[in-house]
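Repro case for the chain-ordering regression, as requested:
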Amino acid sequence: MITRASIEVMGTVASMAASDHRATSEEIARCFQDAADVLREMDQRFSHYKRDSAIARYEAGEPIAARDATDIEYVLDQCGTWEGITEGAFHARNPLTGALDTAGLVKALAIERAVEVMAQTCPDVLLNVGGDILARGAADPDRPWRTAIRGLNAPEQVHQIVDLRDQGIATSATYERGDHIWRREPGTASPGSVSVIGPSIVTADVLATASFAAGRERAQFLDAFPEYTVIWQ
Amino acid sequence: MKGLVSNVSGFLRKALPGFALGGIAIAIVALLDPALAKRAEGDATVAALEPSSGDAAVPASAPESCSTAQEVSGPSVSTRWGPVQVAATFANGELCEVHAIAYPYGDNHSARISDQVIPYLDAQATQVGTSFDAISGATYTTEGYRQSLQALLDSVRA
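-- result from build under test --
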């Protein structure tokens, strides 16, 4: 049996699932609470949207706890490293405003940490935060965790089903919107998506973001990551 | 503002026989979990991770049927990605449907495009031989949506 829970965090929805074939329901409840705590702590530390987040105070030059400062500097360092690896296709600056924007990497890092905590007690878990997914173990002794990659042209369209075996998947995309639903902004990008699957959700997220930004012809940095599968639409 | 085709209405009617803001909030969150539409016998959802935000009263003079119900819109709420605004129709004390009428569109860098996953659930039921635990792709950003919806519901109560 699979137990699920959802919370709102980081401006999106985090959905977690656990199978009970190797964990009790009490352990699963504990795992879910631990994951929620990790996600909320990361949100409070890194949210560019909360005026009292550690990163907001860090940017304003205000004093923050040493633990927050260490983690912020770790994330900024990671963003810089990835910017180099992807030749600038991944970066932590909003291109319009120049403001710091670590949200993508932070989300993936939060997922990684939350799943690590959960997996100590619950071997079979899946965590989905805003479309980035990391899974450990299996949904069932006979069935792996299974994810769908969204198609581009309709909300219900499924492009591909991907089984995750101790892997993560991240997708960067723009989707077609019917005029009857959304007010389309001028200069909208044409639909497309990149999904990256591999052992690290942070790597997968960065590579998906960078590949989508660079485009298929200019994502040569992917060659350095043969253990990651890339699915383009 | 034109009315919209929505698969939301059918699902919400099943999920929300009453009308409660807390319930809607949880339902909206739940709707973003695609497997909830096809839960196997015996699956449970742990709902204890987030406090409920309380109930809203049923509108006193609600129209009779969803097809004739007037659309009411909530305020535009600014979020980290841009403005979000929702609209909804009510009939017989029930929420007929809710949809966003304005939503931000990200650039390639942030690629945090928000979209409506709700139609997935009805569609998922018709996928032949397909079942999955999660969807990878841009998913709904709820901040502005909930705020606009809450303000809309508050104004309908008044």
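Ordering looks correct now. Chain B touches chain A through 62 residues (CB under 8 Å).
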